[in-house]
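pls read this stuff:
=====
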Amino acid sequence: MVQSSKNKESIIIMKTIRIFFLSLLILIVKTSFAQTYSISSDNILQYNKYINNAELLICDSMFSDALYYYEKAFKLLNEPFAIDKYNAAMCAFKTDDFDKGESYLEYIVKRGYDYKNLNSNKIINLLDSNYRSDLFHMLEQCSVEINNEIKNLYDSLYLVDQLFRKDSLYWITNRDTLCKTDFSNGSFMNVLIKRHGFPSQELVGVSYNLLAVLPWELIVIHNHVKPFCDKRVDFSNVIWDAMEQGLIRIPKAANYLEQSIGKEIFGTGVVGCVKVEYKGVDTCYYKTGFFNLSDKSFNKINFQRISIGLDSIEEARKKVLFNISNPDFIFSEGHMITYSCNNLTEFNNFIVNLSEMR
């Protein structure tokens, strides 16, 4: 129960930070692209190409073909990513390949995924009740296989991270203390990485639902998103090296790199959908859509995305639309973010930059 509460709080913090970046959209999309970012590892690029193919096939309900590409991708990494294994498992169950489905779920449970999340999964609930009971019993017997000693060190940093964030106005009341604490945590995390390697899913595991922010990720975020702090730890080189080695998923890495760079290079803040709302005295106004981008920004962002193995904006948005109505699969980008406006003028100015979702 305590762990679940921590993860919910982490998600709220993550959304708050993303909203901050979204509010700067008009300035961001005008940013120049002075540097080209590209991955040199052919295996990593090919892995992500296969995963992209699989996810697009899922959107078209071609689950057998999607499973084929997942299997090709998994041969390229020693430790395929848990989200990909999860989606492959769902494809396997959709095509009655129960052995593969079980194997993939067992894999992610051993990395920390809570199989009880499957209780609300419609794909799993459509399985024969006796088989489902046996499946859950098998998953319950799985023990988490990670380095608990290292994980506990990161968990302790999380406790320090949250100590001065209990006050809702912590950015104001505890600013100096937060800056010092975040820098200290970041410095200690650097030491951990040098001694034990990057906090990959093999080392410290995954979150209980594969989406919640892990303790080490909060340390990165709180160091990268710090315009008012004199000192911060920049993890961009660490993230880049981990990405090249297949230790962090590309969409997640792109997000953290953008936070460090301070520019919308890969479009992680403009790919997904956003719900803008204003709650007036008598009427609630809201609109949901995708951010409008100029052709120039659209093409530049796409070029950078593809160069590091990400899907194009068009492909990512196709997945967004699918995932909104099909939550039994987990795609890592494009979850709906809600932006609450303070007045009707702000609302009207914001929705000008949104297009209809279709």
In short: The beta strands are 273-279, 284-291, 337-340, 354-355. The longest strand covers residues 284-291. Residues 175-196 form the longest helix (22 residues).
